[in-house]
């Protein structure tokens, strides 16, 4: 099951590690940036439909590359940044509950699909 607390801790660790590396290598002209995107339509994510909030891989990559050197931490895509900023306004305990419910629902749908496919074979 999705654990928002562990995910948050991991994200904090990655941000912390990136910040240390950034400070260490900045004097040598090396740019180190944290990019934490939201949903991107790719084969790996199995998301096929694109939208304002879900770009395809090429659009996301182009946008993310345009952020290099502009921000230490970014989502890499403007609509993802809007989502992040809006989500930060919601208290953590409510946000965690919403994300957990979404993850449980997504997992349940994936298991139902897997079961249907197994029956079809």
Mind explaining what this structure looks like?
The chain is mostly helical and 121 residues long. The protein has one domain (4-120). Helices cover 59% and strands 3% of the residues. It is built from 4 helices and 2 strands. It has helices at residues 4-25, 57-66, 78-87, 92-120; strands at 34-35, 73-74. It has a two-stranded parallel ribbon. It is globular, with a radius of gyration of 17 Å. One of its GO terms (molecular function) is oxidoreductase activity. InterPro entries: NAD(P)-bd_dom_sf. Belongs to the short-chain dehydrogenases/reductases (SDR) family. 17-beta-HSD 3 subfamily. Keywords: Lipid biosynthesis, Lipid metabolism, NADP, Oxidoreductase, Steroid biosynthesis.
Strand order of the largest sheet: 1-2
Strand content: under 5%
Number of strands: 2
**What is the count of distinct domains?**
1
Globally, the shape reads globular
The computed structural class is mainly alpha
- Average pLDDT number: 88
| Poorly predicted runs of 5 or more residues | none
User: With helices defined by DSSP (H or I, 4 residues minimum), what is the helix count?
Assistant: 4
Chart the SSEs and their pairings:
Layout: H1 4-25, E1 34-35, H2 57-66, E2 73-74, H3 78-87, H4 92-120
Parallel strand pairs: 1-2
Brief write-up:
By secondary structure, the protein is mainly alpha-helical.
Supply database-style keywords.
mainly alpha; 2 strands; two-stranded parallel sheet; globular; oxidoreductase activity
């Amino acid at each position: 099951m999705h654990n928002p607390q562990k995910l948050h801790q991991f994200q904090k660790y990655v941000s912390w590690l990136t910040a240390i590396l950034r400070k260490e290598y900045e004097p040598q002209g090396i740019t180190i940036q944290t990019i934490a995107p939201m949903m991107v339509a790719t084969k790996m994510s199995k998301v096929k439909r694109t939208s304002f909030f879900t770009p395809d891989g090429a659009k996301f990559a182009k946008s993310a590359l345009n952020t290099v050197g502009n921000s230490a931490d970014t989502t890499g895509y403007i609509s993802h940044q809007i989502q992040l900023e809006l989500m930060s306004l919601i208290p953590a305990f409510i946000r965690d509950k919403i994300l957990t419910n979404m993850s449980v629902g997504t997992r349940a749908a994936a298991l139902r699909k897997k079961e249907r496919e197994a029956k079809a074979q």
